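Incident log entry.

Two folding requests arrived from the same account within the same minute. Monitoring flagged them as a possible duplicate submission, but the sequences differ. Recording both here for audit purposes.

Request one:
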Amino acid sequence: MAELAEQTAKLALNDKAPAKAGKAKKGSGAPAPQIERPEFIEHRNRIFEELYQIQQDKVAKMPREPIVVTLPDGSTREGMSWETTPMDIANGISKSLAKRLVIAKVNGVLWDTLRPLEGNTNLELLDFETEEGKTVYWHSSAHVLGEACELHFGCHLCNGPPVENGFYYDISVPEEFGRAVSQTDYAPLEHLATKAIKEKQPFQRLELTKEDLLRMFGYNKYKVHLINDKVPDGTSTTVYRCGPLIDLCRGPHVPNTGNITAFAVMKNSASYFLGNPENDSLQRIYGISFPDKKMMAAHKLFLEEAAKRDHRKIGREQELFFFHEMSPGSAFFLPHGTRIYNTLMSFIREQYWQRGFEEVVSPNMFNVNLWKQSGHWDNYKDDMFDLEVEKEKFALKPMTCPGHCLMFGMRDRSYRELPIRFADFGVLHRNEASGALTGLTRVRRFQQDDAHIFCMQSQVKDEMRGALDFMSMVYGTFGFTFALKLSTRPEKFLGEIAVWDQAEQQLRESLDEFGAGWELNPGDGAFYGPKVDITIRDALGREFQCATIQLDFQLPERFHLQFRTGTADEMSGFQRPVIIHRAVLGSVERMIAILTENFAGKWPLWLSPRQVMVVPVTGVVYEYAEKVKQQLHEAGYFVDVDVSADTLNKKIRNAEIAQYNFICVVGAQEMEEGSVNVRCRDDVGTKAKGQTVPVTAFVQQMDVLKNAKSLESKLA
């Protein structure tokens, strides 16, 4: 074992020059070359066959005893230990259930449906419609993709996890293949995957010692690294086989590859092993699969619609923002994009005024000792930009809470001042990996509607109620529905468990009183306290996590924050405040991306960067058109006039494509009357011929829509 470990430790993870993902040549439909079947496939299989038989012999010798299987509805089924499988139970209930079955849960643990039960069991049978079922289904599909990749490229596999919408595999393509992955490889990969699916290859589970794992995967330096890193000496883990593929995997999996009905390769990109730019450059191939071909067709239609709504595409077309290589991950907001940005911030500021928040401005750079005191340095330093100033290390702030703690602690505080609600739109920086940067949804420089509420424990429920109401009002204005999750203590946390338990109980009670329904999300809290995560759903049914409300008993301790309680006893006259971290929009940049795609660039009037286009019929009324523009501008609206040489119909069409909420056509009659002929973008009945109204009346009607923050631009 020591000799083998020494040999594998010499394998370098950074011995290749980075390679970019390949692109298909235009007009090239020829399949990519396929190399000979790699020898390592037979090497793995020989070891698997040898050890799998030993495992099966052990299972055959296990004592068979009657067991009771309890289903979620309380009903029971009888079985035999080491013989009865979850699939047997499913078949005993109904054939249709067995056909839909993806995975089982045995005493709360995910379990292969063909793996024998070992004793009395609480059993759940999960299909694709469950989150866990979907995850397992896509994980199994990743193995099918891995099989196809090995056969097509002769590559070494790295990681192949399920993700939010499908799965991917990171692979190291051998030099003899001659090029990087491109779109020409998709069809051959899908052909090999379809072949594997038709063969109904069973997923076979085998438990191996670390020594046997290193013997099996010694040819693959990436697997060797994962084994040495993840599997402690003297322990074991599992591999799974389907067809010629054997992969390091905890499982579980679907019964066989035939359970995968529809399979497609979607895209490819470059990546780094373990996401570290210091390691080898790899090729990442994404796929998607479904148990029904209609679901695949619907998914592809969804992707087409999502592509039309892509905020990066609309951002370019509407000249809202752009990115430049001179400042990666930092958006340049153009005038029209800045209008949206400022409107969103003004919206939140209005609510701050009504809800008793005080806006503050805090520094953008702090000595790292602040982050060490707060605990962020140990947990977050890799995601921070740091720099040296006069031999002292400083860092750009990735969040505002430590600075707000300094503000609270700058003088004595009294219980009469609480709650204190500090709000801050300060600029934040986070050192995201270049490969993770994605339009406005993942950036390095951003602002958010960050606020921190310093309150007494007796005020927590009221403040939580206010924070949830704030969130509900804002999301309702955007037309979003939302779901709530309570995320509890993670593995790495600060403070005492008793304090965490108290905080989590207060959040539970606040959520129950809010009455919107919520789910428990164990172990996903922040390192300093439990939190409520709010997931919104947009017009396409996609989910995004934006708002967060976090309860924090730790930072007040670390910053020695206190307030006078008003008691006569000087020794007990001080208490620690509780901090509630909250953001509703979250990152303003990310919210603009979500809103852009939600509205498909058809902004509601109150948020629109292009509200009115004035279209003069002839040059005779150009002066009147400019006068109308000035009237609307003075009323607070974004207005343009089209005095180009285009025809009237072309001008109107251009304004429609640009998504102006209202098009005001003016001619001699309108000039004489002091009116405009209004066409509403969201009212089909006015597009052929609008309604003529006085300019003052038009402004009043727009004011009603704007103040109500209506999602439709229809005049009363």
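Request two (distinct sequence, not a duplicate):
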Amino acid sequence: MLAPRAIVALSIASALAFVHGRQTTVVPKAKFVPLRPAAPTASLQLTLVLPPTNIDGLHAALYDVSDPKSPNYGKHLSKSDVEAFVAPKPESVKAVTTWLAQHNIDAEVASPSGDMLRIDIPVSKANELLAANFTEFKDKDTGAILTRTLSVSIPDEVEQHLQYLFPTTEFITPLHPNRPPFQVVSPTPENPVFKRQGVDICSIDVVPQCLEDYYHVPSAPGTAPGNSIAVAGYLNEIATEEDLEFFFMVWRPDVTTTPEFNVVSIDGGVTSGDGTGEASLDIQYTVGVATGVPTTLYSVGDSSTQGFIDIVNFLLGLDELPLVLTTSYGFNESDFQGSEDFANTFCNAYAQLGARGTSVFFASGDNGVYSFAFGSECDGTTFGPSFPSGCPFLTSVGATTGYDSGTEVVADFSGGGFSNIFPQPSYQSAAVQSYLDALGSTNAGLFNRSGRAYPDISAQGINYVTRINGTFFLSEGTSASTPVWASVVALLNDALLNAGKPPLGFINPLLYSEGAAALNDITSGSNTGCGAQGFPALAGWDPATGLGSPDYDKLLALVMSL
């Protein structure tokens, strides 16, 4: 009698025997163990991505409105302009919907431009449609169960009209709670959080006043109509007004009325409950730093890659976008290798946001050169970039520490490196080449020298005092530095809007061309993460802290001069 796993393997192989058209076959990482064929009546939700009409045109338009040397700088595109670039051609829509109709499947439009369609079908129908054998796999590292297939086949007459279909053959584990980098701060008289309020606390911990003092961030509230910040939340994370009010009472006594924040649910995301760590950190260091700027927590109930796509499509469907989007979550880029079209689907979605004037920030990762949790051995055989920080159309944020002494250094967990999927964009090529020249043979063979390099910028990332469900904790990570940068840009936008100028939008071309002089260059430390090797910080850009941390006064002078 065959062992159960052998039966699963046999059934997968048998489904691949007779297929016609474009076939995609994968071999998952060893950590994904097949358990059993998916139940035929179980429901699958699949998203079909159709080729955009002119994606190169979108990229060109994004750079045109983001390059301070361009006459079109700041002339962000309208919703309809962006949709015209990414909408599929009518013949693609017809070919795909006709194919689905032949199998008695109706699709609904899942994106504002119509480039994504979504179907909900039983496993048996998905197997028939795609000549697949959907199977339940278990991720041995996290315990997550994924329903995937090792092969799909697309008919020849449909192939050119369908760019990607997910989730099918990509094995990308959904976000999962790690041990949170939060340390409880006991409310005792001896504890510095309660004993040394004010500037003196900045020699130990981080509160909004420390950021105001060191980075010259204004304490005055934002006042510009139309300004806004969006905070992405996953994993049932939620912040509360009660925690925010107490946080303001202790650390922003200059503000007489605590600002409120909004919560919007996507994919059934939570909208209430006890305060949790990441959401509390993100809200307290956006509302608490960019005080007065309307802030919304977008609570996404789906913690898989689908949720990351859904929040962008939700925002793109709005007539008025938030001017800043900050996300403290990500994936390992290695999980997307072999699914490069899927990775590009993400990246093109962020390009749409940037083209319409939204600054998109992502945490670079908290495991140094090993992404978020890449290769638990951390043995130095290869570095593991994070995702989506490697996308060239967003801004990746690393972390520093030690600003209390007047000299910031690399936080050793600061995610950084070079993408193995996305090529290096021209806006950063000179800065990156200077670093590579200075680096020499260090870490040779461990990274892709021609890949998109990240992070772009950084900020303090250690010992953030955060109120979580009635208790003060100390938080750390690039998930702390990222909302701070989002707040800095939101306040710059406030000044620009009040002066009748457009918001910053996609800031990387500005940062790499003129913005470096307005940043604090970090030249000490390295991002070894969980391993023994990392990238050292050097003068100029480096893959540990990017171009550096913010100096609001200098940045304000720069952006107001454009």
